[in-house]
Amino acid sequence: MNNPTLLKNLRNIPNFPIPGIQFKDVTTLFKSPKCMKIMLNELYEIYKDKGITKVVGIESRGFVLGAALAVKLGAGFIMCRKPGKLPAETLQETYMKEYGKDTIEIHQDAINEKDVVLIHDDLLATGGSMKAAYNLVKKFDPAKIYINFIIELTSEGQTGRNMFDKDTEISTLIKF
């Protein structure tokens, strides 16, 4: 995809949050109505005929487009959050990040076996947080799971896509 308008508006921040990381700042895409519309329309075109019933957004940048896409698809929106942020009973998954360990959770009643789920986040690098979200959603035994990112890093030894089975449908809007 690599839409030229999105590429032009994406900000790169060297050495953030730690030295050696080239942080892709999607907030510059979110602040532009034109970029938001492009991203939402591109995502809708990918998923409009997939029967999506729930969109899961990973905290916090996954909430922005995830919720908007859910509305456009006529699906529900589920928040995948850090521990202690959701008020009802949850299921959890712990994972390793590039620079530490983290846990995410979803409400126990968020997804059922009839749901077709799209999990959305902003960036695929090593794949740790999305793999945890994927494993968490699998605990609900939904009918199908799709995965989407705004950005996928494919250079500099990033292997995020390799974290998933080859038959897992993963889409991205921008690849580096």
Give an account of the 3D structure.
This protein has 176 residues and is α/β, with parallel strands linked by helices. The chain contains five helices and nine strands; from the N terminus they run αββααβαββββαββ. It has helices spanning 4-9, 27-30, 33-47, 61-73, 128-138; strands at residues 11-14, 22-25, 54-58, 76-80, 90-97, 100-107, 116-124, 144-152, 170-175. The strands form three sheets. Strands 4-3-7-8-9 form a five-stranded parallel β-sheet, sandwiched between helices. Strands 1-2 form a two-stranded antiparallel sheet. The longest helix has 15 residues, at 33-47. The chain is globular and about 40 Å long. It starts with a helix and ends with a strand. The model has no long low-confidence stretch (mean pLDDT 94).
Q: What coarse outline follows from CA principal-axis ratios?
A: globular
Number of helices: 5
Classify the secondary structure makeup into a structural class.
alpha/beta
Care to count the β-strands?
Answer: 9
Mean pLDDT: 94
Q: Level of helix content?
A: 25-40%
Strand content: 25-35%
Uncertain spans, ≥5 residues at pLDDT below 50?
Answer: none
Distance between the termini: 11 Å
H-E string: HEEHHEHEEEEHEE
Instruction: Calculate Rg over CA atoms.
Output: 15 Å
